[in-house]
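Need residues for this backbone.
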């Protein structure tokens, strides 16, 4: 039972306070006039005013409620490092035993897993939800069993009781991590871009680790490079992209002996390569209907810098036109083919014939330019079959075809070879049965490369080849322009030439042999493009070192794919035959592994105001739980405190007047009678 006094006045409170003021004035007047019973008058008025206030006794029949202790158990990925999982299980078992030994105390266990979308450990959000589900006046304390790496401290709720940390981990833990402080999302192909990196050691670093670390860098399929970098200092890394599209830069440092994890020793930086300007040199051997198509096609793209020369007057032409009346521009052959040839991304020879304008030395430069990484497209006409053919020049040494000397002037419908139906340059083009006809083909014998299109009687029409580090393509007809004019329905001229140019510029999405992976959340789609036989299973290596063999299913000719749910975030490696690639599910180093050293630093600003503290389980595995008064320090060496709340539920409530009304009246009358008797008795004076 519990009792208290409450008031239920018979008059409004303003009237009661007015009466109090009048009573005080009345008593003061009696005192000023010297009445001997003034104090009895005051008591009589006070009793009457108290009676008007209606005092009552409130009695409650209370049933006590148990106190609640909230235990937040961190089950995130960083808690699986070292012996932290065992420490967590032991601490939870001891906490449960300590709470069970306390009378009227319950334990609520809340487990905190990795938050989705790389949110890390959301312990404060879980604590706020737990507090919202329980009556706050029953919360005696909260205990977080964790390494202290909490990633939502901004969501910390106001606490009605102490918050403590049972800290896992060891004092000797240390970790080396790789940090990418700044990386561009886009970079111009061929120009230098800079990344800001840092290799950092945390925790108790053992002696002898040194002040440098070995850093390995690999851009796409290029051979990796290694450099020694200082530890603990920001450094700039220059990167030069070799092709447009997405470029994947892998950066890693080897795991050091004794570090708690190597999951944060690698990073993947994806940089989208864009070309500042695509520099194209178009050399037309003579004016013809298809020349304008090539020019319009290239000039329509604002990202293309086109240098176009048409040979209108070959050197051997002799007529009576005075030289000072010629308005032709001299062909700057030396400047283009000797000094600036490496400035061009693509060189197109459109119906070019050997006329003495480009000597063999210049064409040898073009041949060497291709072998060193350049690209050449030969759009052949009737001249390709004659004695003035480029195939008879030094450039012919790297061509994948040889002309037979025949020009086939008849209508035919271009088609795709079996290889062309799978090759990324021609795969998926609109139905060849609906393409318009061409009316000229140069009879060529394929000596190398890959024939993607065929003409009359299956003769090779479009042949691609790799030469050294560069690429070359030969189109055995000058009637591509008919598609652009829409003759007999036309054909995919724009898409074909676009893909052809991108393949020659080594864009990754048009490589014949490619192994790629894309992720949506933790679902990964691995794709393989090949021109050969069906590939074997792809071997995927997870961040923890486990491997999984995945069989791929054919989705289209030359395309295979498999969808796989990745078990965790991090950096994965996949290998299929000679192809090896990496991909990241989420970041390469998830938020859980950005900082792995156990510390109470993040939680201290929340624990200190409510008297909480941290206990390292390594030092105090046998910690104790105590009851402390509200507002007192609630943590010490090897012990944690909770605050008993004394919560209850009222089962019955009774309200009764403090005294019956007639007693108030009798008491007030007695004081008034006493004042009258005292004031009516005469005062005796001494003789």
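Answer:
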């Amino acid at each position: 039972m519990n009792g208290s006094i409450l008031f239920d006045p018979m008059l409004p409170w303003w009237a009661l306070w007015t009466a109090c003021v009048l009573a005080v004035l009345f008593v003061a007047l009696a005192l000023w006039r010297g009445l001997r019973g003034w104090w009895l008058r005051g008591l009589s008025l006070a009793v009457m005013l108290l009676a008007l206030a209606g005092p009552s006794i409130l009695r409650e029949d209370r049933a006590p409620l148990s106190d609640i202790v909230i235990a937040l158990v961190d089950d995130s990925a960083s808690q699986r490092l070292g012996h932290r999982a065992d420490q967590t299980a032991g601490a939870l078992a001891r906490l449960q035993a300590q709470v069970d030994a306390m009378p009227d105390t319950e334990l609520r266990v809340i487990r905190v897993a990795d938050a989705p979308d790389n949110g890390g450990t959301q312990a404060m959000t879980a604590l706020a939800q737990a507090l919202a589900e329980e009556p706050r006046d029953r919360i005696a304390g909260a205990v977080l069993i964790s390494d202290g790496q909490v990633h939502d401290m901004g969501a910390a709720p106001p606490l009605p009781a102490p918050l403590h940390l049972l800290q896992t981990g060891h004092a000797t833990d240390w970790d080396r991590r790789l940090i990418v402080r700044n990386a561009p999302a886009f970079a111009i192909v061929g120009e230098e871009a800079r990344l800001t990196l840092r290799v950092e050691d945390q925790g108790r670093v053992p002696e002898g680790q040194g002040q440098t670390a070995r850093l390995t860098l690999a851009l796409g399929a290029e051979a990796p490079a290694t450099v020694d970098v200082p530890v603990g200092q920001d450094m700039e890394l220059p990167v030069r992209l070799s092709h447009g599209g997405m470029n994947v830069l892998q950066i890693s440092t080897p795991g050091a002996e004794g570090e708690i994890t190597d999951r944060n020793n690698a990073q993947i930086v994806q940089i989208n390569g864009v070309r500042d300007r695509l520099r194209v040199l178009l050399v037309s051997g003579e004016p013809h209907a298809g020349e304008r198509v090539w020019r319009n096609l290239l000039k329509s793209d604002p990202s293309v810098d086109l240098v176009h020369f048409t040979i209108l007057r070959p050197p051997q032409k002799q007529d009576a036109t005075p030289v000072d009346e010629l308005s032709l521009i001299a062909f700057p052959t030396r400047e283009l083919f000797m000094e600036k040839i490496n400035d061009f991304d693509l060189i197109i020879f459109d119906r070019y014939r050997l006329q003495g304008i480009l000597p063999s030395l210049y064409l040898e430069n073009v041949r060497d330019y291709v072998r060193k990484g350049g690209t050449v497209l030969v759009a052949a006409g009737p001249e390709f079959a004659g004695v003035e053919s480029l195939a008879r020049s030094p450039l012919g040494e790297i061509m994948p075809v040889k002309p037979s000397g025949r020009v086939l002037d008849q209508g035919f419908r271009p088609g795709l070879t079996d290889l062309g139906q799978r090759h990324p340059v021609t795969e998926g083009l609109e139905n060849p049965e609906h393409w318009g006809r061409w009316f000229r083909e140069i009879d060529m014998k394929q000596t190398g490369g890959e024939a993607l299109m065929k003409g009359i009687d299956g003769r090779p029409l479009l042949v691609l080849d790799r030469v050294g580090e560069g690429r070359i393509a030969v189109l055995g007809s000058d009637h591509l322009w008919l598609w652009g004019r829409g003759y007999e329905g036309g054909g995919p001229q724009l898409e074909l030439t676009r893909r052809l140019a991108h393949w020659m510029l080594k864009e990754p999405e048009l490589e014949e042999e490619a192994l790629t992976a894309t992720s949506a959340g933790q679902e990964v789609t691995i794709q393989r493009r090949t021109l050969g036989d069906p590939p074997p299973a792809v071997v995927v290596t997870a961040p923890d070192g486990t491997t999984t063999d995945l069989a791929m299913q054919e989705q289209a000719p030359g395309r295979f794919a498999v969808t796989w749910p990745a078990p965790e975030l991090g950096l994965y490696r996949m290998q299929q035959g000679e192809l090896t690639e990496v991909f990241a599910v989420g970041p390469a180093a998830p938020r859980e592994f950005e900082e792995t050293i156990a510390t109470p630093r993040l939680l201290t600003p929340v624990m200190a105001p409510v008297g909480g503290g941290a206990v390292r389980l390594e030092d105090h595995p046998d910690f104790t739980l105590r009851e402390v008064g509200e507002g007192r320090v609630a943590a010490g060496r090897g012990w944690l405190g909770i605050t008993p709340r004394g919560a209850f539920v009222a089962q019955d409530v009774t309200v009764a007047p403090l005294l019956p009304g007639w007693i108030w009246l009798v008491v007030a009358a007695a004081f008034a009678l006493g004042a009258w008797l005292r004031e009516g008795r005469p005062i005796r004076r001494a003789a």
